[in-house]
């Protein structure tokens, strides 16, 4: 997509060899610990070495045969509670802002689940090169892309993360420009969908939009959060409302001048749940060292004298921090929002002082509270997605498909890949219909739901 949108020039890859990619930290027991970059360094690592004897049992313990369990339960069973509490819970904070004791291992760290299932041991499976979770669509897509862009594999292998000169938003802006320029796409912003009505006989969908004339369309691909879709549909699917979503406060801090220096260059640090993070760290999930991790986003003379940090706070601990159980008030003018923003600013500034020993006052502070922004795949999620796949196929026969973070992966890459897959499938069905000159070609077996891959994960 980056190539197709001519964004190569503005792409900011972070190579796996750079300090930002190699130096990742965990804050635990009052200090930052750099994560080991090799097996050798893991053997002497203060957080990891004491856990190795217990973790070694993974090589001989038999598989549990369970179809799913929490991340904490899986890691504790195979590697010991310490590994789950001190290390994995921090990663879960970093990716899902979630609680490792609640999230499904199969839906979040599917590779671990498959290594145990296929090899009986995670470590053995890794040593034998297993664990790749690749669906038939992934294989086809990879072959197609690599044939078109042979350099891409090398680029991907070398790259740890990526952004763009003006941030990730460049991607959605460029996509919008490209679609509008094609003249074939009508984008309606700030339009709230209120209802979806399906006419199975006429093979049409009526989309009610707040304050606008309704739209009649041939099929719908919903990229809305699942709980929103639930409220728009005539049929009630419990699978759409099983997972809660968490709220995350994002605090951006900018320090100008040489007063503020990082103790060590790197990507940033995460805090494990075992630190009693809701109480001891006021729900801080972690801090990203932006100016270090993607330095080329900043230009000009001040570049080397500016420190930019992003603190993420809340997630599964959000309600505990703000002291209510209703999430945030939707009105940005409300005093409770302002109070909450001040609270999160204070938590971030205090953490920077305590953890990074930076006493300077930030020159710029921005706080954004992202309400219900990361879906939490609870245990059994994948099986529920399989049930939903069957229901959508049976009930809508291709008139409704779903995609987005609520279903089969929360990362930007997952969202793009899954959206591409469902879009290609829908377009290919439409092509078949046009070719055959028939209005109703989408047979039940072939109906696109966007959840087909759930059977292969
Ligand atoms: C703080 C934070 C940091 C993250 N960091 C990373 C990262 O470093 N790397 C990574 O890969 N991923 C990251 N993620 C995850 C990733 O950004 C998201 O999972 C992904 O962008 C979700 O995309 P989406 O399109 O599915 O959902 P959304 O972007 O939430 O889109 C859903 C859209 O539906 C709209 N909507 C809701 N109701 C209606 C309605 N009735 N009618 C019309 N529209 C409606 C909403 O306005 C919204 O625009 C992060 C997420 C957060 C919150």
TrEMBL record:
Its EC number is 1.3.3.4. Belongs to the protoporphyrinogen/coproporphyrinogen oxidase family. Protoporphyrinogen oxidase subfamily. The lineage of its organism: Eukaryota, Fungi, Fungi incertae sedis, Mucoromycota, Mortierellomycotina. Residues 23-426 form the Amine oxidase domain. Catalyzes the 6-electron oxidation of protoporphyrinogen-IX to form protoporphyrin-IX. InterPro entries: Amino_oxidase (IPR002937), FAD/NAD-bd_sf (IPR036188), Protoporphyrinogen_oxidase (IPR004572), Zeta_carotene_desat/Oxidored (IPR050464). It comes from Dissophora globulifera. The keyword Methyltransferase does not apply. Keywords: FAD, Flavoprotein, Heme biosynthesis, Oxidoreductase, Porphyrin biosynthesis. It is an enzyme of class 1 (oxidoreductase). It comes from the Eukaryota. Binds 1 FAD per subunit. It catalyses: protoporphyrinogen IX + 3 O2 = protoporphyrin IX + 3 H2O2. This is Protoporphyrinogen oxidase. GO terms for molecular function: oxygen-dependent protoporphyrinogen oxidase activity. It is found in: Mitochondrion inner membrane. GO terms for biological process: protoporphyrinogen IX biosynthetic process. One of its GO terms (cellular component) is mitochondrial inner membrane. Pfam families: Amino_oxidase (PF01593). Pathway: Porphyrin-containing compound metabolism; protoporphyrin-IX biosynthesis; protoporphyrin-IX from protoporphyrinogen-IX: step 1/1. Its cofactor is FAD.
């Amino acid at each position: 997509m980056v190539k197709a949108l001519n964004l190569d020039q503005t792409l900011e890859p972070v190579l796996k060899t750079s300090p930002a990619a190699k130096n990742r930290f965990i804050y635990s027991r009052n200090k930052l610990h750099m994560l080991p970059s090799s097996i050798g360094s893991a053997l002497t690592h203060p957080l990891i070495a004491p856990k190795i004897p217990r973790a070694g049992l993974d090589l001989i313990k038999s598989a549990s045969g369970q179809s799913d369990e929490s991340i904490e339960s899986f890691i504790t069973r195979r590697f010991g509670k310490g590994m789950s509490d001190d290390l994995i819970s921090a990663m879960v904070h970093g990716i899902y802002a979630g609680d490792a004791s609640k999230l499904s291992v199969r839906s979040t760290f599917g590779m671990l689940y498959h290594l145990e299932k296929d090899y009986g041991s995670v470590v053995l499976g890794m040593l034998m090169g297993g664990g790749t979770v690749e669906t038939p669509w992934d294989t086809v897509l990879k072959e197609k892309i690599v044939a078109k862009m042979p350099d891409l594999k090398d680029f991907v292998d070398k790259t740890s993360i990526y952004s763009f000169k003006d941030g990730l938003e460049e991607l959605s802006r460029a996509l919008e420009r490209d679609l509008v320029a094609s003249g074939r796409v009508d984008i309606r912003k700030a339009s709230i969908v209120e209802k979806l009505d399906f006419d199975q006989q006429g093979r049409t969908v009526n989309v009610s939009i707040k304050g606008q004339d309704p739209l009649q369309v041939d099929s719908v691909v919903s990229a809305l959060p699942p709980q929103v879709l639930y409220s728009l549909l005539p049929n009630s699917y419990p699978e759409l409302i099983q997972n809660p979503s968490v709220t995350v406060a994002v605090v951006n801090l900018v320090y100008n001048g040489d007063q503020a220096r990082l103790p060590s260059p790197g990507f940033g640090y995460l805090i494990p749940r075992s630190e009693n993070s809701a109480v001891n760290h006021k729900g801080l999930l972690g801090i990203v060292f932006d100016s270090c991790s993607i330095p080329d986003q900043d230009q000009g003379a001040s570049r080397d004298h500016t420190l930019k940090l992003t603190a993420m706070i809340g997630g599964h601990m959000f309600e505990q921090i703000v002291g209510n159980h209703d999430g945030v008030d939707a009105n940005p003018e409300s005093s409770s929002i302002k109070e909450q923003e001040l609270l999160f600013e204070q938590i971030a500034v205090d953490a920077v002082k305590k953890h990074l020993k930076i006493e300077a006052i930030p020159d710029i502070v921005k706080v954004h509270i992202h309400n219900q922004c990361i879906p939490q795949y609870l245990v059994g999620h994948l099986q529920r997605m399989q049930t939903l796949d069957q229901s959508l196929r049976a009930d809508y026969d291709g008139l409704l498909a779903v995609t987005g973070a609520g279903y089969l992966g929360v990362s930007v890459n997952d969202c793009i890949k899954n959206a591409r897959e469902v879009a290609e499938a829908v377009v290919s069905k439409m092509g078949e219909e046009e070719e055959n000159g028939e209005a109703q070609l989408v047979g039940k077996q072939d109906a696109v739901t966007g959840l087909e891959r759930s059977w292969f994960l």
